[in-house]
Amino acid sequence: MSHEERTEMASTQTFEAKHLIGGAWSDAADGSTFEVLDPYTGDAIGTAPAGGAADARRAIEAAAAAFPAWAATPPGQRQQIFLKAADALDARHDEIADALIRESGATFGFAMFQLHFVPGLFRQAAGAAYLPTGQVIPSDVPGTVAMGIRRPVGVVGAIAPWNAALILSARSITAPLVFGNTVVLKPSEESPWVGGLLWGEIFEEAGLPPGVLNIVTAARSGAAAIGDEFASHPAVRRINFTGSTETGRKLAEAAGRNLKRVVLELGGQNPLIVLDDADIDYAVNAAAFGAYLHSGQICMSTRRILVEAGVADAFSERLAAKTAALGYGDPRVPQHVVGPLVNAAAVETVKGRIDDAVAKGARLLAGGGVDGPVVQPTLLADVPDGADLAQHETFGPVAVIEVVPDADTAVRRANETAYGLSAGIITTDADRGMALAGRIDAGIVHVNDQTVGDEPQMPFGGVKDSGWGRFGGAFAMDEFTELRWVTVQSGSRQFPF
What we know:
The protein is built from 16 helices and 23 strands. The strands form six sheets. The chain has a seven-stranded mixed sheet with strand order 15-18-19-14-13-20-21, sandwiched between helices. The chain has a six-stranded mixed sheet with strand order 10-9-8-11-12-22, sandwiched between helices. The chain starts with a helix and ends in an 8-residue tail after the last strand. It is an alpha/beta fold.
């Protein structure tokens, strides 16, 4: 389909977004804006403020001013706000689904998945408002009651990506808010409304007090200035970031200089191990889902498929056929599994890594081509370790099959990467799968499932270059509260002098 045909199919609706700071919608300090483009058509679909350090500083100050009252808000009030936010999101289902497709390039199916997940996240968070915030600890001092008590930290800086724009922006603000912190959110420049400013509208409707949630957008050139402000401003006590390992490392270094804790959910080179006792058809379906959902633009996407030799031929043949048959193109078409990559630079990178791998000896089993902003679902085998595709996280619909002689080799190869986010093991022997899972260096391991999965209450995060800290339910309390030791002495103590 030509660019002109794509343009004719595009919606004509556009938006003019503004920052949300202290409960008021405002322009960038210098009045500048940037265009937001539809990844499939290339058309401008809106504008957003091109903010910078001054805007971030104003938002942080607004959040700091709102913190004392919000921290003292009863849990029942916080619970009701999140329940109302979930209902408000459900009521705008069709509008937000269209925005996810137009702004982030999500396919219809992935948009529906996000719109199912996030209301559940908010409703689960509503219950988290009542989680216990402390414990009594036995003391050896007579007459002393000792307690470990958690309290909110203050202002949290949240930086969210574009790839699962609704889920990951919601996740970045939910736990901090429900545990009594205030937040400044910087969404991706690729998805400033559906991955950020939307939450200002939703939570305003739900009754969140002004200044508790502040949202500042930036063009690509201004994003680093906002991150630097989060790292340096003394009112910001936590930062959470979801995105690339390269950017996460820079942010962690800046935060570390100011002794700030960060929660980092970064890249993944996620392995799926297919053992020789696997149900082959199930393994093929699982691998295709893990590799090609949202065009492989998910941090948990299945990148490497390690298959035991006994089933490698049958598995490879069937997965190649399934990959070649997947629908791709316009993300508005429900039958299309693979849609556009986020921008032209991403297409160039992914295509370049495919071509590099083939030039270095890899076999192309399916796909490999490009149709405008869409990279075909692609499957390769025999990719050498020296290829870029083998060394780097590649955010696109590309999976690699590697044949291994046994399960031990599969585990070793799975661990031979700097990343450690998610892994999967396909087997009909759950005990064998659990034994292997214990040996894999990853924050998430799914036995008899592929690598992509999330639930709001689960401890989500990685190890090694995939980051540190955990999102999810009660586990996030460790990240977004401070634990204090408080004692009460009954009567008088005897002192030696």
